[in-house]
Amino acid sequence: MKLRNTLLGLCLILLMGSCSSNKTVLPYFTDLTETHGSVPKGSFELTIVPDDELVINVTAANMEAVEQFNVPYQRTRTNDFNNAGNGTLESQIITSRNNAISYQTYRVNEAGFISFPVLGKLHVAGMTIGQLALFLEEKISAQVINPMVTVELVNFHVNVMGEVASPGARLVNRERYSILDALADAGDITPYGERKNVLLIREENGERVYHRLNLNDSESTLNSPYFYLRQNDVIYVEPNKIRQANAKVDQDKSFKLSMTSVIVSAASVVASLIIALFAK
After folding, report:
1. Phi first, then psi: what are they for 128, rounded to 5°?
2. Which pLDDT belongs to residue 233?
3. Considering 15, 189, 227, 257, which has the largest number of Cβ atoms within 10 A of its Cβ?
4. Are 170 and 185 in contact (CB under 8 A)?
5. For residue 6, what pLDDT band results from cuts at 50, 70 and 90?
6. How many whole angstroms separate alpha carbon 200 and alpha carbon 208?
7. Per residue in 91-133, pLDDT tens?
8. Is this model's pTM higher than 0.90 or not?
9. What is the pLDDT of residues 162-217, one digit of tens each?
């Protein structure tokens, strides 16, 4: 009896240990136990890269003087990028800010250049949005008094995949956009998502690099150079062990059901053949 109780106790301990190892810590930043504090803020400025689409608008007190630097507007179809219909990706992105009229955009080519009216080919890759605006103002000021240039990146989007409520591509309409913003826009991580091992894939210097973020740890996440997102970033929230186990059970059930169906069908065919033989 004593041995039996001991064995039962060991089984319970093992079972509890197995269950606890499968648990996912649902809250974010569990290390923030104080009621207040501060964390250093990193840089969120975007650097222009090849394949970016830019809207550039030049204004001045004398608008006639800057007309030659502004490309005329174009009218195109209206689409919502985050709920895309049958429109092209470009039209979805360009018209997302305005339901009727879209700007002509400048696409940065693979070598990092754009073709700008009057000024010709300009190398812009590696600049921030603000740096490009200042660069153009200096160039244009040789012909126009006190020009003002605004630059906007219109195809900044990220992809959120895995265990989130609403996976998919997300169009971003501002430079300051963090991984927390992306997860919020995707409806947050589901209870089956692994918060301590979120994968981020980024294109840097012609390569795809990846980094894993632990959203239970505030210091490593908020101080990470991957906290603020960049163009074409991919965020993947992997399923926890419970979700993976459930998926395996569902697959096994489907396989067994399929095999049962095959066996029943085969048995039915054999039975029909036997009946046909005896009938003769």
Report:
1. -85, 170
2. 97
3. 189
4. yes
5. low
6. 10
7. 444 444 444 445 678 999 999 999 999 999 999 999 999 999 9
8. no
9. 999 999 999 999 999 999 999 999 999 999 999 999 999 999 888 999 999 999 99
- Pick from 95, 92, 133, 94: which is nearest to 116 by CA? 133
- Average pLDDT of every residue of the chain: 80
CA nearest neighbour of 226 among 50, 60, 44: 44
| Pairwise CA distance, residues 192 & 233, whole Å | 22
Amino acid, res. 54: L
Per-residue DSSP letter, 175: S
Dihedral sign for Cα atoms in the order 246, 251, 255, 260: positive
Q: Is pLDDT of 228 > 90? A: yes
Do the Cβ atoms of 200 and 212 come closer than 8 Å? yes
8 A C-beta contact, residue 59 and residue 69: no
The answer to whether the beta carbons of residues 49 and 203 sit under 8 Å apart is yes
Give the number of other Cβ atoms within 10 Å of residue 111's Cβ: 9
Helix H segments across the chain?
Answer: 2-21, 63-66, 89-94, 129-140, 179-185, 218-222, 241-279
CATH topology assigned to domain 53-153: wza like fold (3.30.1950)
> Which 3 state secondary structure label does DSSP give 197?
strand
- Smallest CA-to-CA distance from 103 within 112, 94, 111 is with 94
Phi, psi angles (nearest 5°) of residue 98:
-145, 125
As its CATH architecture, domain 157-239 has Roll (3.10)
Q: Provide the residue ranges of all domains of the chain, joining segments of one domain with +.
A: 53-153, 157-239
